[in-house]
Design goal:
56% of the residues lie in helices and 24% in strands. By secondary structure, the chain is of the alpha+beta class. The two termini are 34 Å apart.
């Protein structure tokens, strides 16, 4: 085996320029594949954290009644039927009539880490001569902090002052800019002719442009007075210990509570699909560089087979088997492959770190001031796996051709 490798190395060095080009293709293909996956996966994780930090993992809302369709069971002479509930035909009753009871039931689930009761509605917020439409969320502060990242989203003012001020209000950064107001200023909220006065005690930034432009938070009791709803709530916002299990927990809660329960995956399905497509398309594009490197490997080894027929014939004549010849050519491919993967991983580490330090300014679906990357061993393993499949396949075909060279024919041809 050692002698086979020495022969493989000799053949390899005879085509060092072509092999270096192939090696460069593998290195850059592996590195760019990892970097693009780290970026797209990083921004996807940031989006998910932003969504969970603003809206929680689950939302319990709207009591429903299932329609029942009777289907006859095929039981011979039996005429008994069975009933199948159809989700599409449900009758929904907006809001939650008894939020306290539902909240206690939700909190009993071991997978639930927090529950916040929310009374939501639309109103006009005004300051001076400016007036804008806003989504008002009435909350209990401590409960809401257990299901969102509101505590870390405050940019100006403080939650301590909000908790002490019954008429305190929290608004988003973009809304504060539109209204041209600052901490301590007075705001007026109007709904169906009713007008109430509030004091701005905090300005938050979720990173989601729409939320920062339209959302405001007031105390739940104040929301009941503003919307004239002494009882009930709009929905319960729920946080889970493991947000990835939200769809399964949502189904269990629906069956238990007879209320509609939406998971964050269901609410954000469109954006999640977009990120998956981006990951796949970027991975496919970068993998094409590895495929091109594989073609270079194939061409180089094919040339070696054509140019080294005499040496191959001599090796066969002195006792080398077809398996030995295949081993020699595969070891050439393996040597370039291993070097390419290792150098590609090192380059990927450097590029990923460098990219993560580049400044950007994104405000919209999420907020970021630099490129977000996800460091994952799976990205490196996938890049190595793709490179291995391509290069080994590209090496095997010429190796198989070399193994089938007839030494007698080559010697006769050379002698003639």
């Amino acid at each position: 085996m050692k002698r086979n490798f020495q022969i493989a190395l000799r053949f390899l060095l005879a085509k060092r320029r072509a092999m270096l080009m192939t090696l460069a293709g593998i290195v850059f293909g592996v590195a760019f594949f990892i970097v693009t996956q780290a970026q797209t996966h990083g921004f996807e994780d940031l989006f998910i954290r932003t969504v969970l930090g603003a809206n929680g993992a689950l939302r319990v809302q709207d009591k429903f009644q299932n329609p029942i369709t009777s289907l006859m069971a095929d039981t011979g002479d039996s005429t008994e039927g069975f009933r199948v509930p159809l989700k599409e035909g449900r009758t929904y009753i907006p809001g939650i009539s008894h939020p306290g009871v539902i909240k206690e039931s939700v909190e009993k689930f071991s997978s639930v880490s927090g529950v916040s009761e929310v009374l939501a509605g639309r109103a006009s917020v005004s300051s001076g001569f400016r007036s804008l439409k806003t989504e008002v969320l009435g909350i209990r502060l401590n409960d809401h902090l257990s299901v969102t990242d509101l505590g870390s989203q405050i940019r100006f003012g403080s939650l301590a002052r909000y908790s002490e001020e019954p008429s305190g209000i929290l608004i988003g950064t973009r809304l504060a800019g539109r209204l041209q107001i600052d901490i301590g200023d007075t705001l007026f909220m109007e709904h169906l002719g009713a007008k109430r006065r509030y004091r701005l005690v905090g300005i938050f930034e979720t990173g989601v442009g729409q939320y920062d432009l339209t959302r405001t938070f007031i105390h739940l009791d104040e929301a009941r007075l503003l919307f004239k709803k002494p009882f009930g709530s709009s929905y319960l916002q729920v946080a889970l210990f493991d947000s990835d299990k939200a769809p399964q927990v949502a189904l269990h809660l629906e069956e238990t509570l007879q209320h509609n329960v939406d998971s964050w995956q269901e609410r954000e399905k469109t954006w999640l699909d977009v990120f998956r497509v981006l990951r796949f398309s970027s991975g496919l594009t970068m993998a094409s560089i590895i495929v091109i490197a594989g073609l270079g490997m194939f061409n180089t080894l094919a040339m070696i087979v054509m140019e080294r027929q005499r040496e191959i014939a001599i090796l066969r004549s002195i006792g080398y088997t077809r398996g030995d010849i295949i081993s020699i050519f595969l070891q050439q491919g393996m040597a370039v492959l291993i070097a390419g993967i290792l150098l590609g991983w090192i380059l990927a580490l450097a590029l990923t770190y460098g990219v993560s330090s580049l400044p950007i300014h994104i405000r919209g679906v999420f907020s970021a001031d630099s490129f977000v990357v996800k460091w994952s061993l799976y990205h490196y393993l996938w890049a190595g796996f793709i490179a291995s499949i391509v290069i080994l396949l590209a090496s095997f075909l010429p190796a198989r051709r070399a193994a089938h060279i007839d030494p007698g024919e080559v010697i006769r041809r050379m002698g003639g």
